[in-house]
Amino acid sequence: MSEPVVLKGFGKGIAVILDSSCDFEIICDHFKQKVINGKNFFSGYEIPIQFIGRKLNSYELQKLIDIMKTFGGVHDIIFPWDQISFNHLLPSANEQDENKITITEAPKDAKIFKGTLRSGQVVKSDTDLIVIGDVNPGAEVVSANNIIILGALRGIAHAGASGNKNAVVFALEMNPVQIRIASIIARAPDEENQDQEKVPEVAYIENDVIVIKPVSEF
């Protein structure tokens, strides 16, 4: 690939083609310059975007999003299911680097919410729910099946609301007020070790009790 980053339009959105062999920091520099040069093209309340050519972990994805918001004037970003693969958004069993995340193929009818959920906001889904952002205290996410939070869970999460005890709640930072899976409820401990390193964790039912473990142990 001659350039680390190539931009192409599709409909009303943008396809960002990334060189898979190039250092990510170099990609960020080139992407930043292209966003600055094409600020009028990026500016808007929301924009559909597709990253292709390179498998991004959550840190890399968020960094590219931050570049678009900071230097391109983008207020919100849409990831249409037919435009993006989420195959690399949750840890796999054999993943050595905990900062890199992978996921099995997500169902195409899953609901995606992009942005931070603030106190009083509630997002519900009849299928799997993916939140690209934080769930703050006072906010609530409810799904008939699994909940995947690519950010911090500090509010309430209710997975398996349809009665599915096999549902899970995943978060890059797990610090909920309450987690509920099917009819089983778990609350956060009264005290949290602030010095404890934050790692991606998953909550699930084991012996009729909700347990929370690092993904590497799940």
Automatic annotation (TrEMBL):
Task of the protein: Cell division inhibitor that blocks the formation of polar Z ring septums. Rapidly oscillates between the poles of the cell to destabilize FtsZ filaments that have formed before they mature into polar Z rings. Prevents FtsZ polymerization.
Septum formation inhibitor MinC C-terminal domain residues: 113-212
Keywords: Cell cycle, Cell division, Septation
Top-level taxonomy: Bacteria, Bacillati, Bacillota, Bacillota incertae sedis, Caldicellulosiruptorales
Sequence similarity: Belongs to the MinC family.
Keyword Cell cycle: yes
Tagged with keyword Cell division: yes
The protein, known as: Probable septum site-determining protein MinC
A Pfam family annotated for this UniProt entry: MinC_N_1
Parts forming coiled coils: none
Organism, scientific name: Caldicellulosiruptor morganii
Subunit composition and interactions: Interacts with MinD and FtsZ.
Domain (Septum site-determining protein MinC N-terminal) ranges: 5-71
